[in-house]
Amino acid sequence: MNINEKIAQELNIKTAQVENTIKLIDDGNTIPFIARYRKEVTGNLSDETLREFDERLKYLRNLESRKEEIIRLIDEQGKLTDELKQAIEKAEILSELEDIYRPYKQKKRTRATIAKEKGLEPLSNIIYLQSDKRDINEIAKEFIDPEKGVETIEDALNGAKDIIAETVADNAEYRKKMKKLCNKEAVVTIKAANEDEKSPYEMYYNFNETLRTLPSHRILAINRGEKENYLKVKVEKPDDKVIGFIENDIIKDKNSQFGKLIEESIEDGYKRLIEPSVDREIRSELFEKAEEKAIKVFGKNAKQLLLQAPIKNITVLGFDPAYRTGCKLAVIDKNGKLLDTATVYPTEPQNDVAGATKVINNFIEKYDINMIAIGNGTASRESEMFVSDLISKSKKEIYYAIVSEAGASVYSASKLATEEYPDINVSLRGAISIARRLQDPLAELVKIEPKAIGVGQYQHDVNQKKLTESLTGVVEDAVNSVGVDVNTATPSLLSYVSGINKQVAKNIVEYRDTNGSLKQRKELLKVPKLGKAAFEQCAGFIRIYDGKNPLEITGVHPESYDKAEELLTEMGYSVDDLVQNDKLSELKDKLKKVNVKEMAKNLDVGELTLQDIIDELSKPGRDPREDMPKQILRNDVLKFEDLKENMVLKGTVRNVTDFGAFVDIGVKHDGLVHISQLSNNFVKNPSDVVAVGDIVDVKVIGIDAEKQKVSLSMKEVKWFCHVVMWTLFLTI
C-alpha cells in the first residue's frame, strides 16, 4: 500500500501536500504550528484536516507494520505463498488483515487441532476435495486408531468434519462476504430484559432497525442499556444466504457421498465458529464507528464552547446554587482576581431570602457588580428566580447569565485549585470557576479535563484514551487560534500552547515571577528547558502587550517580522503605527487594497503567509472570539408554566448531538430541536446548521409538563417570520 496516495485519496488532497505534511510531522512540528505557519508547505490544510491526517497516518503506518510482522510469522511457518503475500499487502483495514492471518495463528487446542493430533487431517482433505471414487466408509476405516481415540468410522468422520468446519471458519473471503451481507441486510433486534421495569431505555423495549441505518447515538444508547441490564440485543443476520454462498463455493455435488458431510461441516463451522465471532466483530466495529462519531461531535462542541466570546472588563459575582449546604458566592474583579466570598441560604430548607438579599446587595454596592453568573446545577432554577427578583428590585442595571458548571466540582477538588486558592474552602472554589467562565471561558475551562466540560453524550462510554487524545488536540487548537498573553496566563493555559509542555509552562511563570513581565518574545529563550525548537513552535501564539515591538501583540511569527516591516515600509508606515489608532485606521483601508500576488512577489514571501500578515496588521491584538456569538444576558426569568405552544423565543445552543441540538431558552431544562426541525432543507449533520454557543430563534412546538421536556423548532420560526413579513408587505 502506498500510504501517501491512500491519504491523498481519502482527504481529497494532492500527493505533494501529503509528502510535505508528513515531513513536517516527522520533523516534530505540532499541528497548530503547521496549520498556522506552514500553509505554503501544506497547501493551506486546516487544523481539523491536519488532525485527521495525523490520525490516518498513524493508523496506516501501524497497518503496514502489522503486515510486515504477519508476513514474517507466516514465512517462519514455511506457509507463505506469493498469492498469500499479495493478499496481505492489499489489505486496507486491520480487521481484514487479521482475518487473513487467522488460519496461521497459534491457537489453543480446538476440536480441529485435537482431530489433527489424531491423524485425521488427510481424511478431511479427501472429503474436502471430493475427488476420491472409493466408498467414504472404507476410506474412513483406514483412520481408525483406538490408541489415538478414534475407535469407529463415525469418530473418524466427525473429527474430519471438525477440521473442515474450522477451515471454513478461518476463510477470510467467507468472513468478508458475511460482513458485507450483514452490513446490507442484518437487523438489530432489541427486547426488554424486564418489560415491567421502568428505565430510560423504554423506547427500545420492542425495537428493531437495520444495521446500516442505525445512527451512532442510538448504538451508544443501546450499548449502555445492554450494559446496565435493561436491554437484550441481538443482530439478526442473513444466515441462510451466507451458508448457501459457502456451500455453492465448496460442494461440487450435494448428492454425492461427500456432499452431506461437507454440508454438515459448513453448518457447524458457521453456527459454532463464524457466527459468534463475526457477531462480536460486527458489534465491535459498529461501536467503534459510533465512538468515532461521538468523539468528533464532542470535540466540535468543546471547541465551540472554548471559543465562546469572553465578557471583559467587568466585575462578576459567581453564584454556585445549592439547597441544604447553601449557595456559594465569589466576587471576581475584571482581571480575574478573587475579591470576596460568602455562603447564603435563599433556597430550601432555610429559605433565608432576606439574609441572602442583604449579602448580595452589599457585594453589589461594595464592588460595583453589574453581572451575576449562575451555575446550572442543583437548585439553579430556584436560584435564578431569587436572583431575578433581586435584580427587579435593584436601582442598578444588573444582568445575570446561566453558566454551565460542568467540571466545576472537578476543578474545585483538584491540585491546581488548591495551588491557586490554598486558603479557600473547596466548596467556594466552584463559585470562583463559574464567575471566571463567564469572563474568559477558554482560560478557565483549560483547568479541567476536557471530557468534564459537559458538551457531549456518552463520553463515559467511549474509549477514554481516544477521547482524551482527541479533546487535548481540540483544546490545543482553540488556545492557539486565540493566542495567549504570556504575562498573565496560568500554567494550565500555557501548557496548551504549541511546543510548551506542563513543566516548561511552570518555568515560564517562575521566570515571569522572578524577572518581571516579558517585553519581547525572544526573551522566552531564557526560560529553562525552552530551546530553539520549542521557541519556533510557540512564538507565534504568544502575545506580549506593552512590549518593545507592537508586532508581538499579533499572530505574526518572529520569523516573518522582517516581511511585515517591509510591507509596512512599502505602504509608508512603521510598526509603531500599529498602536496609533488614527494611523491604524488609515492602514486598514490601504491593506484592503493590497494586490497580494504582486506584493508577495516583491517581498519574496508566500501569498498565504502574506495574507496572514495583512490580516494580523489589520487587527493587531484583536481577540478572534469577539466574532463569536455573545452570551445571552437576562434580567428576568421565564417559568416553565409560562411556556405556550407557538411561542417564539431566543435561546443559546448548549449542546449539539447527531440527533439535534439542545437550546437554553431560560427555563430549568434545555429544549430539544430535533434534527428534523433544524431547517426546511434536509439536514444530514446538525453541526452543519448550529454550533455550541449560537444564539438562535426557536418556536415551542411541544410541551411535556410531566417530564418537564420542551420540543422546539427552528424551521417553524423561519416560516413564521416569512409569513409575517409577507403579510406586512401585502398590507403596505
Total DSSP E strands = 15
Give the total of domains.
5
* The CATH topology of the largest domain: Tex N-terminal region-like
Would you identify the regions where 5 or more consecutive residues have pLDDT less than 50? 719-732
Quote the beta fraction.
5-15%
CATH class of the largest domain: Mainly Alpha
- What is the H level of CATH, i.e. the homologous superfamily of the largest domain? Tex N-terminal region-like
Distance between the termini: 68 Å
Q: What is the mean predicted local confidence, pLDDT?
A: 89
Rg over CA atoms, rounded to whole Å, is 33 Å
Question: What order do the strands of the largest sheet run in, or round the barrel if closed?
Answer: 6-5-4-7-8
Q: Judging from the principal axes of the Cα atoms, what is the shape?
A: globular
Descriptive terms for the model:
15 strands; alpha/beta; Arc Repressor Mutant, subunit A; globular; Nucleotidyltransferase, domain 5; 11% strand; 5-stranded mixed beta barrel; 30 helices; 5-stranded mixed sheet; Tex N-terminal region-like; 5 domains
